Amino acid sequence: MFNFIIRRLLYAIPIIIGIALITFLLFNVVGGDPVLQMVGKHATPQVIEELRAEMGLNRPLPMQFVDFLRQIVTFDYGRSYSSKRDVLGMMIQAAPVSFTLAFPGFIISLCLSISASLFVAFWRGTLVDRVFVVVSVLMISVPSLAYILFGQYFLAYKVGLFPISGFSFDPTQVFSYIALPVLIWVVLSFGGELRFYRTVMLDEINQDYIRTARSKGLNERVVMFKHVLKNAMIPIITSVLIQIPFLITGALLLESFFAIPGMGTQLIDAFNTSDLPMIKAQVMVFSILYVVFNILTDICYSLVDPRVTIK
Amino acid sequence: MMRLFVFLSVAFAVVLTGCTKKKEQNLNVLQLATSAKIKGLDPAGAQDLYSSSEIMRVYEGLLQYHPLKRPYELEPLLAAEMPKISKDSLTYTFKIRKGVKFHDDAAFPEGKGREVTAKDFEYSFKRLADPRVQSTGWWLFEGRLKGLDDWRKKYTNTKDTPTNYDDEVEGLKALDDETLQLKLTQPYPQLLYALAMPYGAVVAKEAVDKYGKEFINHAVGTGPFILESFNPSDAIAYKKNPNYWEATYPTEGESSDKENGLLEDAGKKIPFVDGINVRVIVEEQPRWLHFLKGELDTSGIPKDSFNDAVKPADPAKPLTYDNLALSDDLKSKNIQMTIAIAMDFTYTAFNTDSKDIPQLKDKKVRQAISLALDDKESIQLFYNGMATSSQTPIPPGINGYDPDFVNPYRTGDVEKARKLLAEAGYPGGKGFPELPYDTVASATNRQMADYASKQLDKIGIKLKVISSTWPQMLERIQNRQAQMWGIAWAADYPDAENFLQLFYGPNAQPGGMNGSYYRNKDFDRLFEKARVLADTPARTAMYKQLSKMVAEDAPVVFGLHRIGVGLRQSWIKNFKYDEFAFNRSKYLRIDTEEKKKHLQ
Question: What are the φ and ψ backbone dihedral angles of B2, each rounded to 5 degrees?
Fold first, then answer.
């Protein structure tokens, strides 16, 4: 197990360097010049050159790339070009905010959709199943902005069930602030997840061993929970664990409309302002999380499925 | 990671068990919102409107615009009086107001703010020149103050030499604690405007030294409000400065100010409110809903809610800025409205020195395109009627604006456009290459570009729309890859020089402001003559002449001057629209009785 993890981590190094290289090249080819925006509208060419030198952007590209690799190891990405604040500090401030919104949304929709999928799989082919499928397709088809605008206008402004927007870690307020965005999150993800898990469950339900279990006279509850759910764990784990890095990177529209100062808008802002330090930091942190959770996924396989052994 | 995960799960569990009781709210606190994340609170980096507004709640400079008088007029703020200007207009001597103190802050001995001296201004202005600071305000002093450029040069590209602020600079000197002397290399009448900008604010060396790179998050000024908390992407809170110097509400203003109730607080000590909360809300809908609910004191009108918020005052006529009234719903809420023409202009620039599309060098081609791009419909389509066509770069309200002048190439006369294009050798657009049009990627910009290409179809010119991010577009303009692009200019100060310099030949360089590379020797000569003059009728006449020259040569297609429609709650008193309104919250008063009534 230990060897496996070490080996996978070593494999990850060229992947991370590759991602770094692609990010770096893309930025330098099509990214737009950050200096022109930083110097303001009145700058002379001389001032532009001075700032370029001051920021080290006039140095040869390979040297700049080596700096980037060093930053990946030290996690010191410097200061944002646009806000001049410490990039890592900005991310550390924003990530828990995003997570506070995303985690409950994720857990609630996961529980709901898995239970519903078992239920639907049990009643497969009946009216119940069809109603669920149609409703989930409808839910997926409505654009997310529509849910947000409706929820905010109707539930928050007209009925006054929730605050219109805002965020605070203050324990007396945080629940009311995240309630509506979490609700919308659940509504947004439920349809898609239900359809996915339903397919997963149906795959298992039609297997020979399920028929055997039934013919042994096991009751349906045991069949569904002990056999179907347990054997469906592999695709469930794959989809769940790989979503976790996305929870930290935030939900762009929800954060933006509910004025939640999370990471959702940070990366978009960074692209729009050619804020290289922020782009580098976000891409790298996300890639590293992605690789780590991939490894975790493999380890979890061996935990739920005895046939999978880690060598 | 795991620990963070556990911590967050526990934190969330704690949070979920919390209740949602509301705290008692102080009604005498302004509730505002800003639509952009705040980039920092260092006056040396006060580049955008949003940051400048926050910076100027805390910081102050030597001069400010009179809050009520129009046209805009400067008055002393931290200067004790207006400066003495030598006969040759090259030496400015300022007396500093006595008894003004910096906010109490840990940067000072025992945490007590000390008195501001002339030396502090010397330091603050040198900071704009310091290459380490990377100030966006250096252009205000560049080449203007004797010896300051040399001082800057000493520290440019010399990372190991620490900047020495004690080095004497001839043109920027504190003669004693109360006297600041500026010596100019050439007459520069805009200097006083420059000093009223956020860049001219005074900072304390102690605070800059103590906080270093974090100074952008720690505002220590002399202003009416003290920064209480600062999260640039969420919320900013200020409280009233208990030690604010004896500033008072103005006792005179425009003739209409008295009837509008703007002089009721004349002579009273400011500020009136106990504090300010500013929330960062990027999206329009939540800002608008907060305002309608009375949770925000001021607001603009979102583009998509425009027709619900206002109606034509005279229903028989179309909705324009001079035919505008609040909807019945807003009227019943007693909401107040202000309409004002912004000191800006939008334009479509040509690369008049283009290698790829040399046709743009031909004045007739540019004039033809200018004629084909009619703005009457686009003002309705994209601005809800809230804009007025610009004939020249100079907007109304600035000396040099000529209300009677009609730009002959902004009439929307398509026949004339076709004729000019034919004269240039492209009858019906035959042989004219596909014309790239650069724009910043956004839904509205895309619609505007599509609309422009529909209009140019009429004279046979095909547009190719290129959407990019703002820095990408700036780079394309700088590298002269852009041939035609949409952009706007907003006044830094109320002087036409600020607009006309966009067409000044020496500014035609990579990264320079004259992005269209327009060069006209007569223009340059007259501009150089005009810009060093004080504000006189002779100068105004020159400005008018200059703008006519630009109109004739059409290096850009003049677009429009935008019109701002601002709303505020009935309990906000002493509000007057201000183009350079960076420190106006100190004059606002809240009628707490009325607010209480409304909230109940």
Answer: -60, -40
Give B261: exposed, middle or buried? Use CB within 10 Å, 0-12, 13-18, 19+.
exposed
Are A85 and B281 a contacting pair at CB < 8 A?
no
Residue A19, phi then psi, degrees to nearest 5: -60, -45
Tell me the chain A residues in contact with residue B285 when contact means C-beta distances shorter than 8 Å. Answer: 149, 152-153, 257
- In this prediction, residue A311 carries a pLDDT of 63
Q: B215 near B207, Cβ under 8 Å? A: yes
Segments in B26-117 forming alpha helices (H):
49-58
pLDDT > 80? residue A162: yes
Asked if B11 is an interface residue toward chain A (Cβ–Cβ < 8 A), one would say yes
Band of residue B6 on the pLDDT scale cut at 50, 70, 90 = very low
| CA B439/CA B482 separation, integer angstroms | 10
ipTM of the complex: 0.89
* pLDDT for res B23: 57
Query: How many angstroms away from the CA of A226 is the closest CA of chain B?
Result: 28
DSSP classification of residue B200: G
CA distance B554 to chain A (A): 22
**Domains of chain A, residue spans:** 2-74, 96-304
Cα A101 from Cα B26, distance rounded (Å):
29
Contacts of B278 (CB under 8 A, 6+ apart): B32, B33, B34, B54, B235, B236, B237, B238
- Does the beta-carbon distance from A45 to B510 stay under 8 Å? yes
A250-271 confidence digits (pLDDT tens) = 688 899 999 999 988 888 888 8
The Cα A108–Cα A84 span in angstroms is 38
By 3-state DSSP, what share of chain A in percent is helix, strand and coil, each rounded to 5? 75, 0, 25
Q: Which of residues 270-299 of B touch A (CB under 8 A)?
A: 279-283, 285-286, 289-290, 292-293, 295
The answer to whether residue A11 neighbours chain B at the CB level (below 8 Å) is no
Assess whether the previous peptide bond of B271 is cis (omega < 30° from 0): yes
Of the two residues A251 and B364, the one the predictor is more confident about is B364
Please report which confidence band the pLDDT of residue B11 belongs to, taking 50, 70 and 90 as the band edges.
Answer: very low
Could you say which of 3.40.50.2000, 1.10.3720.10, 3.40.50.720, 1.10.3210.10 is the CATH number of the domain covering A96-304?
Answer: 1.10.3720.10
Residue B2: pLDDT over 80: no
Q: With 90 as the cut, is the pLDDT of residue B15 above it?
A: no
CB B182 within 8 A of CB B191: yes
pLDDT in tens, B187-204: 999 999 999 999 999 999
- Structural domains in chain B, CATH included, are 344-562 (3.10.105.10)
Spatial separation of the C-alpha atoms in residues B321 and B339, rounded to whole Å: 7
B8 in reach of chain A (CB within 8 A): yes
3-state secondary structure of B466: strand
> What span, in angstroms and rounded, lies between the C-alpha atoms of A142 and A184?
12
Q: Is-contact A42 A62, C-beta < 8 A?
A: no
Residue at B444: amino acid letter: T
The C-alpha atoms of residue A294 and residue B598 are separated, in whole angstroms, by 55
List C-alpha distances in Å: B210 to B122, B200, B324, B420, B457.
Answer: 19, 21, 52, 64, 61
CA angle A79, A82, A84 (to 5 degrees): 35
